[in-house]
Amino acid sequence: MMAQAGTLEIQHLSKSYAVKDGDLAVLEDVTLHIAPGEFVSIVGTSGCGKSTLLRLIVGLEDQYQGEVLLDGQRIVGTSLQRGIVFQEHRLFPWLTVEGNIELGLLNAPGSPAQKREAVREHIALVGLQGFEKSYPHQLSGGMAQRVAIARALVSKPEILLLDEPFGALDAMTRAYLQQELHRVWQAEGITMILVTHDVEEAVYLGDKVVVMEPRPGRVRRIVPVQLAHPRERGDAGFAAVKQRVLDEFSHDGASLAEAPLKPEAPVSAQLPAALWQFAV
To answer: pLDDT value at position 251?
Structure first.
């Protein structure tokens, strides 16, 4: 059974943090509409508030101006409706592939038999049949990240958030997992939001690319990606959209082709232990 896809409305969202000399504005007047089943890529240089935006969508913070609405309801606290995958897989080393994925169902309804079946289905979804009893140290980085994706999806969230999920992988593995994530997105039919520094990745996966500018974070432009799937990176149309996105950064003096010197703090760093099950 497919998960329900969520509609996300972000309306005039602003966020500040109290600092010694006053308030530090992190996000300013961000407005986005993300339709059910849409794949949205968000790109921007370090400091543009991408991770803060994810924390607000996940529900870890509630002190902000504006609205963050899922299916018309204001997001309050964490929920199984919103799954998340980080750059690091964050698997528990003492649990098998099955055990790690089953953690995503910790607070979910259903009988033990139903949960076992859901785990089996999602192992198949990410192509890891035969590795059910394997431990994380026996997996490659790409395989471990597929386990993390399965763990995030097993509770059937309405929205999956992806925070630089392939940033720590080599180029070939990264390209392969981009294809796999696209396949999973089409199979599951849920809404996905990807934060990335990689413009090519953003264009390859996204229905649209949200370009953010920093300090405070604002939406500079939303670039539609009107290309049929599967996309060919060597096509002229693909190159044209990628260049449109890159052109938005020509005045920043920063290249998205380079990883940031200091990555933004992962969302999981803000999680209380009792809420870990939502950070999958």
So the answer is: 60
